[in-house]
Amino acid sequence: MMRTVLGGLTLVAVVAAGAGGYWAGQAGVTVARLEEMLGSPGAAPVRLERAIVGEMPVGPKAAPTSLPILYWRDPDGTPSYSAKPKTTDDGREFVPVHEDGAGPASAAVAAAPTPAMVDGATGDRKVRYYRNPMGLPDTSPVPKRDSMGMDYIPVYEGPEEEEGVVTISPGRLQRTGFRSEQVSRQVVGRPLRVPGVVKLDERMVSVVATRADAFVEEVADVTTGSAVSKGQPLVRLYSPEMAAAGAQYVIELKSGGAARSGGAGLKLRNLGVPEEAITEMERTGKVPQSMTWTAPRDGLVLERAAVDGMMTEAGDVLFRLADVSRVWVVADVPEREVGSVRLGSTVTAAFRGLPGRTFDGRVDLVYPQVSPETRTVKMRIEVTNPDGLLLPDMYADVGIDTGTGEAVVAVPNDAVLDTGSRQVVILDRGGGRFEPRPVEVGVRGTDMTAIAKGVEEGDRVVVGANFLIDAESNIKAALSALDHKMPEQAPMAEARP
Questions:
Q1: Strand 423-430 to strand 433-444: parallel, antiparallel, or no bridges (unpaired)?
Q2: Which of 233, 336, 466, 489 is the most buried (most CB within 10 A)?
Q3: Does domain 202-322 have CATH number 2.40.50.100?
Q4: What topology does CATH give the domain 172-185+406-462?
């Protein structure tokens, strides 16, 4: 009994759907006739299915072609490819795909959306191959999707296809909130907030003492904390040794042989006799019973040790004074921030006891030692104190300007992507093209980051939607391209079904 296609409903349905209705209209075609047409007895079911999906022409034999073969793909249309002839597990040969693109297209590939469907027409540009959207070393000669349903990204021929350059369609850019800014030269810096304490400027401290034994006859009405002026009397002393040297100096004066550089005059100066007392001896020709010591500078009395009637030995400190018109603020800077602070950096100090007021200063010294307990380094800051409001041991909130101090090539902080092992910025090459560029970063400021190497003034860098469309996909692919150079002809990576 002759078997016909109409006797098998399933075969008729497949024929009608796959062959555009042609075979459905041939109600009288028998299996034997199909076998005769396909050129091999018993091959009708297999070759018919392959003819329906377009994998081979219908007829006694397929017309030979001399066009080069690009690759071979699975005859069932699954996303499996090979760079050389291959057979399936059941012994069927992979189908060749020729250079003119006329080779068979699988149902899976035909169903996958092409980049032109997603991003718009590609014009006259020819696609070289498609690369994995996640940056994996996997390419495809035809449009396809990965295991997560993401479209492979087309790589076009022509001068625009440069090493490491990523091309994004205008439609996708608009959806990502893309922004770019021009690289410029700026002073990069940021305030470093650290605690500090007010200390006296050691160079502004003086003491009042004698160089010989003496007796205190009278102490001026000044106490610890009192403000004194330079030349103000502090204490009156009587010293037998100083009196004897004074008497010798007066005798020499009267004999006409005395001089300030002579023996008696030199002895008076060595004993620290005040200049006023020597002048009085020259004027009156008499040795004063006692001599007055005055304040050597303007300042505050830090210490008063002199008491009426006491005896003081040579070298004893009677008064300690400090000029507080300039003070130090000693700040504790964390060890990791020391490298960002320069000598001469500008400083602003605020104090809890003086709300609303700030004092300016400059870093004068970085102490050459790290505290083992706090892992901080002390920095000395000179601050002017004209009103005397800053007192020793006051707490300060110190803001130190860190940075380059001069204009350097800088990019916004958001433009720098830190991958852990290196820092990268994305250059905007125009026309939807982007290039990842490794950079050497310098000081990181409040808003800007100094770039020592990698970009130049006038370049444009991406500052918004840095990951370009799919956060990780395109950027990871571009970063991978920095380390994996694409071959001139993309390899036909075999994909697993």
A1: antiparallel
A2: 466
A3: yes
A4: 2.40.420
Provide the 10 A C-beta neighbour count for residue 217: 15
What integer pLDDT is reported at residue 238 of this predicted model? 95
The residue among 201, 208, 242 whose CA lies nearest residue 384 is 201
Q: What backbone phi and psi angles, to 5 degrees, belong to 55?
A: -85, -15
Q: What is the pLDDT of residue 191?
A: 82
- Using a 10 angstrom Cβ sphere, with 0-12 exposed, 13-18 middle and 19 or more buried, the burial of residue 478 is buried
Most confident of 95-99, 107-111, 290-294: 290-294
205: β partners: 322
- In degrees, rounded to 5, the angle at the alpha carbon of residue 242 between the alpha carbons of residues 238 and 247 is 110
Q: What is the per-residue pLDDT across 122-166, written as a single tens digit (0 to 9) for each? A: 445 677 778 777 666 678 888 888 877 778 877 766 554 455 577
Q: Where are the domains of the chain?
A: 5-52, 172-185+406-462, 202-322
Contact 322, 300 (CB under 8 A): yes
Return d(Cα 393, Cα 124) in angstroms, integer. 77
**What would the mean pLDDT of 333-339 be, rounded to a whole number?**
89
Contact present, 272 and 318 (Cβ < 8 Å): no
The secondary structure of residue 209, as a DSSP letter, is: E
Cβ neighbours of residue 478 closer than 8 Å, sequence gap 6 or more:
135, 164, 165, 166, 426, 434, 435, 436
Q: Which residues pair with 402 in a beta bridge?
A: 190
In this prediction the pTM is 0.53
Lowest mean pLDDT among 63-77, 259-273, 400-414: 63-77
Residues 6 or more apart whose Cβ sits within 8 Å of residue 81: 71, 72, 73, 74, 140, 141, 492, 493, 494, 495
C-alpha span between 15 and 4 (Å, rounded): 13
Beta strands in 27-141 (DSSP E): 69-73, 81-82, 95-98, 127-131, 139-140
The secondary element (H helix, E strand) that includes residue 181 is strand 179-182
* HSE-CB of 219 using CA atoms within 13 angstroms: 18
CA distance 223 to 220: 9
